[in-house]
Amino acid sequence: MERLVERLEKAVERLEVVCQGPGMCGDGSSKGVAQYVQAFDALLAGPVAEYIKISKEVGGDVQKHAEMVHAGLMSERSLLVLASQHQQPTENKFSTLLKPISEQIQVVQNFREKNRGSKLFNHLSAVSESIPALGWVAMAPKPGPYVKEMTDAAMFYTNRILKEYKDVDKKQVDWVKAYLSIWTELQAYIKEYHTTGLTWSKTGPVATEGANVPCAAPGGVAPPPPGPPPPPAPAPASSSTDTSASRSALFAQINRGEDITSGLRHVSDDMKTHKNPALKNQGGPVRSGPKPFTAPKPACSGNPATKTSPKKEPPLLELEGKKWRVENQENATNLVISDTELKQVAYVFKCTNSTLQVKGKINSITIDNCKKLGLVFDDVVGIVEIINSRDVKVQVMGKVPTISINKTDGCHVYLSKNSLDCEIVSAKSSEMNVLIPTEGGDFNEFPVPEQFKTVWNGQKLVTTVTEIAG
Question: Are 126 and 163 in contact (CB under 8 A)?
């Protein structure tokens, strides 16, 4: 009993620290506070407080990012207090109430985009990829699985942190555990109090904007400036039932070996945005990362509003500092990057039904959110990463040490004779094949296993490829 009392006292002390004193968390008193708000306060006092504490010890960009995350969590607490005292509002009013959370999510993600050169970029990416989990309050009927999905998105980067610091800096490992525990605890919290969606009060007035005082942000972090409501969510991706024939037709030219460049059209200097800045302003602003969370419309809406198409981003091929940016290209089968240097990297984002050739030797290439893309490159000294993509074909003409495939469905890798020692690392992906060149100039295709069997041998877990997976 004494231990229980001691733990409760410590939880209260940590909660007071998180809330920055009286009046900073809603009404500043637990009297009359709903049970699920008190449970959320316990989450703030536990995993969140631990994450903030370790982030301060790590310092730098990680500390600044943690303050922004904390501000988002406090905005979410304000909404929970509001929901516990009011009835569910109309769709339009609810979108307005969600705006502080949506804006803070965008603040967190923008910080990552503005600090791509940070030494702690993997930390910033882990947080940025998973912070949309705060949008669970707008998800129905499965908010818990949505948080799980966002947590999984962070794993790619947290695994990198663990690999880099596992035997070097225990503090970094503790940071990963503390951060991921926030979302693990949040899933348990949602399962208990908001299983099918945010729970609203059955009594009281209907919630309106300004019905509750927002929770103050932590010291040193100014609240985000007011702005227009978030843009409408993009339409869902089309069905993935493309026939194998259409896929093959799209990338038929990728198997032509050295003749791959014979049909390419030269891109002159006046067509390149990095050598002709006037082209940049013809299509509006360009962004280089995933879109921030936007509140979806409730599934039970009786009179759905007229759908508006999301604003189409302009195509881009430019050199920004040491990074080649190839973005939003559609049906472009003649993209070429030729003026390369060893220190340069290439970032290919949201390109569809296109083919890109990278000449010369480059540091790394990242393919993100692409569909039906063909990539041909000479030499990469670092890594080629394929993330969140579908139907991608990659041909190595020279050498590459590592190819990483993550959250991708449909990936064919054509290796050259000089790149047969390449390491291929895959996770959460399907339909992967590696093609090995033969003496006759053809390729032999080998599938990458997707199904595994794990057994306990009395001392440890032993994992092997199942027979059905080859």
Answer: no
Nearest CA-CA partner of 423 in 448, 388, 391: 448
Q: Minimal CA–CA distance to 370: which of 347, 343, 337? A: 347
| DSSP result, 379-442 | EESSEEEEES-EEEEEEESS--SEEEEES-EEEEEE--GGGTT-EEEEES-EEEEEEEE-TTS-
Handedness of CA 137, 156, 114, 68 (dihedral sign): positive
Q: Does residue 59 contact residue 117 with C-beta atoms inside 8 Å?
A: no
| Residue 451 pLDDT | 85
Separation CA 149–CA 93 (nearest Å): 27
pLDDT of 294 above 60: no
Cα-based distances in Å from 258 to 29, 195, 230, 372, 468: 72, 57, 48, 21, 36
Tokens coding 235: 């339409």
470 or 148, higher pLDDT: 148
Q: How far apart are CA 74 and CA 81, in angstroms?
A: 11
335 beta partners: 356
If you average pLDDT over every residue of the chain, what do you get? 79
pLDDT in tens, 180-203: 999 999 999 999 999 999 999 988
Within 86-222, residue ranges assigned H as helices are 91-114, 121-130, 143-165, 170-193
Peptide bond into 141 cis (omega under 30): yes
Residue by residue, DSSP assigns 258-291 as GGGGTTPPP--GGG-TTT-GGGGGGS-----SPP
Report the pLDDT value the prediction gives residue 287, as an integer from 0 to 100. 45
| Ramachandran sector of residue 66 (left: φ over 0; alpha: ψ -120 to 50; beta: rest) | alpha
- Give the max Cα distance, the chain: 80
Q: Is the pTM of this model over 0.70?
A: no
Length, in residues, of the chain: 470
Contact (CB, 8 A) for 118 and 64: no
Please choose, from the candidates 227, 372, 344, the residue with its C-alpha nearest in 3D space to the C-alpha of residue 274: 344
Position 166 scores a pLDDT of: 84
3-state secondary structure of 6: helix
**Which residues fall within 8 angstroms of residue 306, CB to CB, at 6 or more apart?**
none
DSSP 339: S
DSSP string, 229-240: PPPPPPPPPPPS
- pLDDT, mean of residues 203-227: 53
In degrees and rounded to multiples of 5, residue 370 shows phi and psi of -110, 155
What is the structure's pLDDT at 141?
87
Positive or negative CA dihedral for 79, 85, 91, 96?
A: negative
Q: How many helices (H) and strands (E) does the chain have?
A: 9, 16
- Strand pairing of 423-427 and 443-447? unpaired
